[in-house]
Backbone:
């Protein structure tokens, strides 16, 4: 099998985070496309093949269920830090997406450093993000709200040794992302040849 490297370069370099206000309101992605994204996520590498990624997909009325859960949990646990704007955002955001995919790390092998099971999930999410871009969809990884909180885990089928790493929010693109910006790769690389 051969691939056009330039197409891969273009796919990777033109992927941008597309945020909720940039989504086409009310336009729903077919579930079979979401399954293709999940299938590609599932082909990520993982040390000792732990396949530590776990996803919960919310769509339809499920989006309201997610919104209610995360806003209520935030309200119950924020204490003196409670911020009405943040509460309203947690309530409003999921129903504006076509699908929201909760990103979990299942601690499969306690013999491995935990970071490796997290790293494998990040690889899976990048597969998902690039696949979404290839299908002409928009999305972004959000890690605010109830992400990383102990009390949220059970709702997403996660146990105490597992981690909730955030959400991948998906929709059709109404307003494309910016061109994107990165510092030169040369500043991040040491090259040892002799
Ligand atoms: C682990 C992770 C967590 C992120 N969390 C958030 C977030 O909570 N809110 C947000 O607006 N963007 C979040 N992002 C998206 C970044 O803002 C985005 O990737 C960055 O600005 C670079 O833009 P690009 O994705 O278009 O290249 C997250 C990205 C990653 C990888």
Residues:
């Amino acid at each position: 099998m051969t691939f056009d490297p330039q197409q891969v370069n273009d796919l990777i370099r033109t992927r941008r985070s597309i945020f909720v206000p940039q989504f086409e309101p009310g336009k729903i992605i077919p579930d079979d496309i979401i399954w293709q994204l999940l299938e590609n996520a599932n082909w990520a590498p993982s040390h000792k093949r732990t396949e530590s990624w776990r996803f919960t997909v919310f769509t339809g009325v499920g989006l309201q269920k997610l919104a209610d859960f995360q806003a209520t949990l935030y309200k119950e646990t924020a204490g003196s830090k409670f911020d009405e704007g943040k509460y309203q955002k947690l309530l409003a955001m999921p129903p504006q997406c076509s699908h929201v995919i909760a990103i979990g790390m299942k601690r499969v092998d306690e013999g491995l450093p935990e970071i490796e099971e997290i790293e494998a999930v990040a690889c899976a999410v990048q597969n998902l993000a690039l696949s979404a871009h290839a299908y002409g969809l928009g999305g972004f990884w959000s890690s605010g709200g109830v992400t990383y909180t102990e009390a949220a885990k059970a709702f997403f089928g996660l146990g105490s040794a597992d981690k909730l790493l955030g959400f991948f929010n998906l929709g059709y693109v109404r307003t494309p992302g910016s061109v994107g910006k990165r510092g030169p790769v040369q500043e991040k690389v040491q090259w040892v040849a002799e």
The radius of gyration is 18 Å. Residues 16-17, 140-144, 166, 177, 180 surround flavin mononucleotide (CB under 6 Å).
